[in-house]
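sry for the spam today, last one i promise. struct tokens for design, 197 residues
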């Protein structure tokens, strides 16, 4: 059975924060199917409403379902972007999902939404280098780390900005599927990935 994996979508989402991991999981699925198996992930784009989101730079992206959908996801990934105006309903959805997910993860300023939802605790977290100080100021109890691509605590993971989401997604493929599939996914994408943090 593929793991159900939700990517939260909202207006002014950073394109690569959302679409980079989507591509990683999509390519990993192609590899597992090519090997004669099932897709490893069932990736669903979850919107605040059913309208396409307008990502940063103006790219329009359709969603598959909305935060009103009651299904539970194995993995929830929250990308960054302009998160100041993300509706409270989306934050409540993150909080609700995190109670039962195998993993709740963020890319870039998605960490702000995880903090808003009460998902982050005393374990180290990270975000985009430009937003490190703001994250520390808004949540002084967080242990915010710089100069790391991602941090994975098993049930919660955060990554630095934009392209670091690719590293986190490849790491998750390695963790949830296999190291071999992660390496082959990176190679298929022609992405120089060290396999580590």
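last one done:
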């Amino acid at each position: 059975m593929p793991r159900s994996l939700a990517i939260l979508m909202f207006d002014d989402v950073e394109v690569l924060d959302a679409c980079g991991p989507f591509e990683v999981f999509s390519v990993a699925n192609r590899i597992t199917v090519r090997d004669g198996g099932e897709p490893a992930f069932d990736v669903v784009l979850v919107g605040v409403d059913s309208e396409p989101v307008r990502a940063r730079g103006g790219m329009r992206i359709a969603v598959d379902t909305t935060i009103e959908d009651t299904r539970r996801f194995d993995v929830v990934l929250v990308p960054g972007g302009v998160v100041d105006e993300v509706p409270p309903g989306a934050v409540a959805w993150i909080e609700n999902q995190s109670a039962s997910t195998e993993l709740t993860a963020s890319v870039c300023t998605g960490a702000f939404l995880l903090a808003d939802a009460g998902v982050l605790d005393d374990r180290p977290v990270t975000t985009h280098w430009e937003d490190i100080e703001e994250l520390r100021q808004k949540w002084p109890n967080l242990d915010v780390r710089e100069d790391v691509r991602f941090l994975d605590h098993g049930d919660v993971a955060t990554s630095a900005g934009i392209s670091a989401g690719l590293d986190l997604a490849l790491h998750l493929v390695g963790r949830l599927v296999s190291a071999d599939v992660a390496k082959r996914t990176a190679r298929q994408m022609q992405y120089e990935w060290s396999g580590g943090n």
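The chain has one domain: 3-189. ok im logging off now
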